[in-house]
Q: What sequence folds into this?
């Protein structure tokens, strides 16, 4: 509205990745309220905390020029989760992140979205291999990182989340 | 960026941008932020700073950054804050640099500028005179909140809005 973000839209076979919109907040709030689902993403958070994160993502787009896209179904507009490039203050590098909202797993949707996001990131934002930071024990996220061709590199102390695992994605142009 | 900028006799109020981060950070990592729930760590400070920027996109209003008219340095912020589950739209303010507190005239050198100007810039605040500390927060009366516009201080003849007020999408 008053801040023009110019967030690009990415389309895949089944999905549309678009910038966050105000109506995306409720699915974010549900996600953050679910401790089992959100612990690997800094949750759980109450609605107020979820809003602050949601607003910070929009601000991230304005400040960094990239951020998390909302993953939607191209046919139904259903919201499946988020994926994107995340680099808040104190992050050692910009990382590829992803979140599956309830009901989105098991269909390859988040893989499809993260792969498309990564291709877009390499084409437009980053030319060197990007990491994903994953909390130890987040096995579903590790499995997705490995399916994307990322491999464990080292661990580090994240400013917000404590010890995290660095999974390094293939360099641009390498076979996935 | 189509800035929603306000101009007062001495000050410019504009939307926050990345250039304001250092001033914001230095305040919220310092003990001066205790009345606003600080000090914060670096990660939290940036998250809320980014949320301040994002709020403008979500609501169409937010906290303006306060600068002098001839210097874009962020001196503080004033405006609206309305995260989810907040009971009402709230108006708040903060002065980042203590050298800009406690004096009356912005025409004097740095160190002699005034939080009073912030009250004036923020407009007709209910019980503004009761706010004594940087970071003190006021709630608008319910009647005002129902009729919220992001530039309520246009009622103040010292202040003019340089762009049309954005209607509150949630009114």
A:
């Amino acid at each position: 509205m008053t801040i023009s973000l110019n967030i690009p839209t990415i389309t895949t076979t089944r999905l549309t990745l678009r910038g966050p919109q105000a109506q995306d907040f409720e699915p974010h709030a549900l996600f953050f309220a679910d401790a089992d689902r959100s612990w690997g993403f800094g949750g759980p958070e109450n609605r107020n905390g979820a809003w602050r994160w949601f607003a910070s993502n929009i601000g991230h787009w304005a400040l960094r020029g990239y951020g998390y896209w909302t993953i939607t179904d191209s046919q139904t507009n259903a919201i499946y989760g988020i994926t994107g490039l995340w680099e808040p203050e104190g992050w050692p590098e910009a990382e590829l992140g992803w979140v599956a909202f309830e009901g989105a797993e098991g269909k390859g949707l988040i893989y499809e979205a993260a792969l498309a996001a990564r291709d877009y990131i390499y084409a437009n934002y980053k030319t060197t291999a990007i990491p994903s930071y994953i909390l130890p024990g987040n096995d579903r996220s590790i499995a997705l990182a490995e399916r994307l061709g990322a491999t464990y590199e080292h661990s580090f102390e994240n400013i917000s989340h404590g010890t995290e695992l660095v999974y390094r994605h293939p360099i641009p142009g390498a076979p996935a | 960026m189509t800035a929603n900028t306000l101009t007062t006799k001495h000050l410019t109020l504009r939307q926050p941008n990345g250039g304001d981060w250092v001033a914001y950070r230095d305040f919220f990592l310092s003990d001066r932020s205790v009345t606003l729930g600080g000090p914060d760590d670096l990660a939290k400070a940036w998250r809320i700073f980014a949320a301040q920027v994002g709020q403008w996109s979500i609501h169409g209003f937010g906290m303006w950054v306060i600068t002098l008219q001839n210097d874009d340095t962020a001196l503080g912020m004033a405006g609206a804050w309305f995260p989810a589950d907040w009971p009402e739209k709230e108006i708040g303010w903060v002065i980042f640099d203590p050298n800009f507190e406690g004096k009356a005239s912005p025409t004097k050198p740095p160190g002699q500028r005034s939080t009073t100007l912030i009250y004036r810039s923020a407009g007709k605040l209910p019980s503004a005179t009761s706010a004594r500390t940087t970071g003190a927060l006021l709630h608008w009366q319910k009647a005002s909140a129902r009729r919220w516009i992001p530039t309520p201080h246009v009622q103040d003849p010292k202040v003019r809005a340089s762009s049309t007020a954005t209607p509150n999408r949630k009114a």
Observations:
- The interface with chain A takes residues 1-4, 15, 17-18, 21, 25, 41-43, 45-58, 60, 83-86, 166, 169 of chain B (CB under 8 Å).
- The two ends of chain B are 24 Å apart (CA to CA).
